[in-house]
Batch of 4 targets.
Target 1
Amino acid sequence: MNSTVFPLSSTTELRQQALLCLIEADPRTKAAQTEELRARYLRGELTVQSDAHLTAPDGVPGRPDRPELVPPLAVKRRAMNTVEGRASLIHALAHIEFNAINLALDAVWRFPNMPEAYYADWLQVAQEEAYHFCLLADHLLSLGFAYGDFPAHNSLWELAEKTSGDVLARMALVPRTMEARGLDATPALRAKIAQAGDLAAAEILDIILREEIGHVAIGNRWFAYLCQQRQLDPITCFAQLAQQFKAPVLRAPFNVAARLAAGFSQAELDAMKIV
């Protein structure tokens, strides 16, 4: 990505910069800004004011005019034996990764009074999600399509909005529920894409699955930290939050190995009825 595309303000505070990245509407510019933001942080050019309570301007998150956002059931499924069908699936995955950039940036700026390691973790996630988005968007171009060419839904960001008032709820229900569902779904998607002959896309999914295990592990780490801080039982707390916020019901098949690698305990998986 071209790191010269970074028209952000001169502030050297990480959370303010993350908010500026979040409101950027152009996906490629957002991805480039996010990669440069992490590079600047790793070079020691940015500070973290964890006690600052920031206010978001209008336009959070920034997103392009396309794709058209429709209800989940209105997103049509297309056959994998056509280029358009494969492109529609790659587009759906690119849209998930674009949302994931926004979710990680939102986790950085929105929640105050967390350890600096928390902000560093979610900045890493944002940068890796930007990389995933660009891999998928580039592959989509190789198929003759572009991000925005197919309708998409907004359910992932809707859950982020519901949990915007409490970092505990956000950690419980976005990385540990929605993103963990990606660990379950990716192997079958990879097999379907490989069977259709798109080995380049299958290799991209291998990269994404490997790094998403780390992202879910970060969610698990900070959920456990917050439960300990608030003296809450993680299993009971998760079940209560899932009910309170009407989180999507977990459905098989489950990638148990990936979930264990991402830091779920066997007791948690048993409680979720994941065996």
Note: The chain is about 65% helix and 0% strand.
Target 2
Amino acid sequence: MHLTETLARSIAQTDYESIPGAVREKTRLSILDTLGVMVPPSTLDQTCERLAELVVEESGPGRSTLIGLGRKGSAVMAAYLNGSFTHVLDYDDTIDDLGHHPSSQTVPAALAVAERVGGVSGRELIAAVALGSDLGARLSSSPTGKLGVDHRWFPISNFGVFSATAAAGRILRLSESQMINALGLALHRCHGQLDAVAAPESELRAIRDGFINKEGVLCALMAERGVRACRNGIELFFENYYDNRFDAERLLSGLGEEYRHGGVSLKPWPCCRLTHGYVEATRSILSEHSLAPTDVGRITLVVSPGTRDLFCEPEADKRAPGLSIQAKFSLFFTVAVGVLRAPRIADFLPENLHSPDVQSIIGRLQYRVSDELGPAAEISPATVELNTTDGRSLSCRVDDVYGHPANPMSDEDVIEKFRDCLQYARSGTGTAQADQLVDRLLHLETVQDLNEVSDLLP
């Protein structure tokens, strides 16, 4: 079966009108959402500030926006910096069933190349992001066994270069043959070690998408210039990384008709998606029974062995995370914040990681492993048991976490999230500018030249 050829042909030949309207609409919202979450890291994260300095030094002149910096750079370095910013807040969209983050792998690469090329329409950006995101979701869903359990590669980085390459290549209007070469080049740039990303002292999980988008843009630009690579990059990928333990039918089924990232979830809170169900369940109990934080005696989080290993252990580190990105990956920290209020960006800033109020709640949290949930870490169901100080035992189970397609965020909440992110821009974004930007992005399919959007970005 010619997997690479089939996928490359679909990416190169599928036009905007052929993409289902519902998928185009979700992609448009994901582009708005992703551009928003890129903004705050330029002012809130020390590592990102260092990366910004490095990019400004190394980039030189260019036409691609360096989000949050109020300046331009080369497409390659813009894709790197903007990609690095997409996951720092852990606020970017996900496909819950896969644990996959589609837009962080495609929007930075596609936008950077679109600005480099010039004259690219909003429709072309939507199509590029939709096709690149679909490829990433298909790749993620194809290995047999559990990602992160049966396979030790970090799947987001491992599959992401193909997604970014496809999105950038689509903006460049690569032919089928050029797209095959681009995917072959992407094979050479796959990376991602799960243990290195999950290490408590590591910041790689926060900035991982910078590497993905930079390599994707480079692969697409090289293919455009005529650089040739192997013609079976996808086949070799599964052979070399997954010992051919994958389902080819699952990879190709419904190609061009069913878009796997159509099941994307937008995130209402800036923390790892798996924590959201537990935060939501806790807040639902508090709201339903009109409880204050002082009424909470003990909270038990019912978890799978995989969730325990990734989000509750090592327990000392999870109860007192030293890095913002690790706090977002801790059930203790995120649920404790959720007891006090709906989690917000400021709760995860370094100076707030040791808040006495949060630590007081953390001291009342424990977890219980349920083998009925299976071995892996899953976003749902999320069950919380809460004992009040007056002796009541209450519980809540969440199956469709807020933001999931079955329980989607309201447009008002999506726009409010976007506006909140803009407040953290270095140069500031006035109300009129923010209004214009929101309007352009909500009607992206009518934008004839993306400079109408990029000129409004902070």
Note: The longest strand covers residues 296-303.
Target 3
Amino acid sequence: MLQDLKARLHAAAAVPSRFPEERFTGRGIVICAGGARLFTCAWVAIALLRRQLACTLPIEVWHLGPEEMGPPMRGLLEELGAHSVDAFEVAKRHQVERLGGWELKPYAVMHSRFREVLLLDADNVPVRDPSFLFDRPEYRDTGTLFWPDIVRLSPGNQIWAISGLSYRDTASVESGQMVLNKSRCWRALCLANWINQHSDVFYRFLHGDKDTFLIAWLMLEQSYHLIRHRPKLLDATLCQRDPDGAVLFQHRNGAKWILDGTNPRIDGFRLERECRTLLNELATLWDGRVFNPPPRSDEVRRLEADLARSCEFRLIRVSSDERRIELLPDHRIRPPGRHEYYWYVADDPHGPELRTEANGLRGWGLRQSEDGIWRGRSLQSPGMPIELVPAGASRPIEQRRDGPDHEALMSLLDRILDSCAALPLDGEVARDLAGTLRTLAALDPAVIERVRDENGGSIPGSARAQMVQRALAGLADPSRRSDSGKIAPGHNWQSAPFKLGPGYGR
């Protein structure tokens, strides 16, 4: 089998590959970030690049189909100046045998619109604008910047015999970041992509995509510069340095950001406060789920387009309150509410129905009346009549106490309570919840009032009711406060253990 694999690999290396000059231009960042977990990481990294680090490089975020990224997620990226790319759509024009998580990375680099690419993992947080790497002499001289891993391929790894290479005592390539000029390394990039297309075989010898680049570059004698500075190790984080030795990237491969859950505080991690602020912001914009509207007729799609053009509405909970909202073309509601993050128009036997969803649950369903107002009832607060009135429409305006910021905060509070109720009922979780409630109450005192209402309205004995009761007790007793961000002994917050096969050594 090894001889056959060697023959196939060398045949692939011998195939001439012309660089398609006409397809690529400029410099940019490519991030592979399909699915809710990696999207959370990518959004934080991109928002940090744009707002904190003033990075203006164009960004592409690659994913695998609508199951990994829905219209609201794409809209959130567009607001940061990042463009989403569905690899399945690209594959209709540029055929591929296999696409998965690691396999996507070389394919995305090959077919991104950029001539020069910084490939960045979604869970990799830069500490300053990395644009300068394209102008470094190490990159200009070779067309490739690689970064070293803390492990290396062992002398006995069969990949050396399969590739026909003599053993090299060199560090593995850590592919959480790399800079490539495609016009100069096109053949090697094509070979790395071919190896990943046969991951069912090659991943037995290599840990994912990381050393597929090293083997391809060595086989074709393609020049590259390997950063000479060893990475700095933090808890669950690999920090890579710039060519001069200063920390530039913080790869949280063992502690990916979580939207709903515990994010550990890592000693020595830079820009942590800024990242956590962005996480809190994202939690007010997105419910952490991949949302795609169901199949719909062309008629209701046209109605959706009309509603999105109208954009602004008054959402009225009759005899209760009202607030201004926008129905965005990407099916987001801005600002979102407790029961309305997403909207769409559904085909219904009784006529088109405007529906909302949040946290995986239907919020309300409305039908349009002759006066142009959409009317119906809430499914989450039974009996509550709802009206959606186009902005500027003639209708008495009721006084309300809830502003957009208040509603967003109440929505965040509700999601926090849901998350805590799903955790084991213990004192530590209750203390953490009490600390979070203190923080939210400093922003809006109505938070405590809402929690007390929740205590009276929850199903007696339910997990949510018990958690709320213990948190309120913690608020009343300051001695129960916990040290925010400290990791409880034995609590496994890491994303996953990092394991390498027998073909690697340190």
Note: The mean pLDDT is 88.
Target 4
Amino acid sequence: MNKTAAVVVTYNRKDILKKCIDSLLGQKNATCDIVLINNASTDGTEEMILNEYMMPEVKYFNTGANLGGAGGFEYGVGKAAELGYEYIWIMDDDTWPAPDALYHLFEADKKLDGKWGFLSSVAYWTDGNVCKANRPKKSLFTFAKDSELSKDIVKIKMGSFVSMLVKGEDVKNIGLPIGDYFIWTDDYEYCGRLSKKHPGYWVSESTVTHAMKNHTKANIASDDISRMNRYECLFRNDVHCYRQQGIMGWFYIWFKDLYMTLKVILKGNGNKKKRISTIWNGYRKGLKYRPKIKKIAGK
């Protein structure tokens, strides 16, 4: 068994998943096992895995239901910690790590003498630009810049689950990502817990391609109206996540929700009333939202 497990969550994207698995199995100078979480895909994903990837390095689990990305990560990180992995490398199924991505994360670990809460790779989109959806935050209101990639390691406040390395011992101490979030903000919330002892870092030499369909950030003003249930989760989760940051977290929530409301009014792609009600329904739900943080057995 390797000391590192890559936790990959998938749902109905077997062709993209295949490239992710092959990229992980092809890591050089630092190898990993794969804890593969299938959120009950219906596109032949399970058959592909059973036919092509039943090997000692791949630990396969079918959740039996679509738990969302957040639920899948809760499930997968929990499995990896229970199996005793020292390091857990978290990513989506449309993440394609460069052959030396994990190696450079461990080079950063050496430079930092192990004093880090989480390490994030630089996620590029398929056009070679830094992925808009995965640019890490340096503070509540500021993002890391391309110009900082000239540095080996950049201190950050929040990163995404598109290639994030965490320590198994930290997972056992602080608990799992919040599966009840279902989608969005689970990574930012987890960074808040992970960085209470040591900060997180963006590692410029560790790179992955995030092959998301569109090179955009989530935008309630322009997205399809059929996705409003997801956005209600986003605005609810944001309240829970950012209120942990104190008064500045509350200021961020109010600023963001008011800004997005104004954006819908000025640039909304139809159904403006529904979009605005989604923002503030999510906010109201977030005020009373108290999701349970699950712990590893025995902790």
Note: Residues 247-267 form the longest helix (21 residues).
